[in-house]
Design goal:
single chain, about 230 residues, mainly alpha, 9 helices, elongated, disordered C terminus
Amino acid sequence: MDETTWQRWGATSGLVAVGAGAGAMVFERGGVSPDEPADQIAAFFAVNGSLLLAQSVLFMIGAAALLWFTGSLRAFLAAAEGGSQRLSTLAFGAGIAQVAVNLMAQAFQIGLATTPPAQVSGGLVALMDATFALANVPLAVMLGAVALVSLRYRAFPAWLGRLAAVAAGAYAILSANVAVSGGPLGPGGELSYVLYPALVIWLVPAAIIMIRRCGPVVNTERAASA
């Protein structure tokens, strides 16, 4: 498989991640607050446990695809940034951290979904919610770094760089879920459903642009001596 094909597969993995995430949302049934009575928490997981398990499996598939995309994104950004590639490396590291924390949150969800409902506690639900919220911090950093490389070095078109900046702001706001237990910004709140799609809105056109720009890698030393 040549380098151009690898580049296309890497960029396409971003669309695979979006598809897996969209499939996972089919199983979304809202959430339960850790402040609710124990019997209501148990009832929620008794009814939705199998759906949450299926959702986590799809999110895991999406996370694997997103890891591959993050590596391709770093190469794409680095080609435009050049030099020390500091921002490209920051975007890569933050993307890896986001996937890692999100997988940890999925582990909590899988554990709660497979635990006998009567043994599920509000404390474990709160820990799961906090881990999901913490995953927004590195995601905001990644998108912020992408925005800077795009606006300063033209890695992506300026409009997509600005969209990355807006998405970074959205996930910075969502990280406040760590300190908010209820209301529009709390877990499962109305505002969270409005802000969470920001990644997809940026990722789809970004992946398409990366696919369209894929081309053979030019060996500059060989070209200069030719």
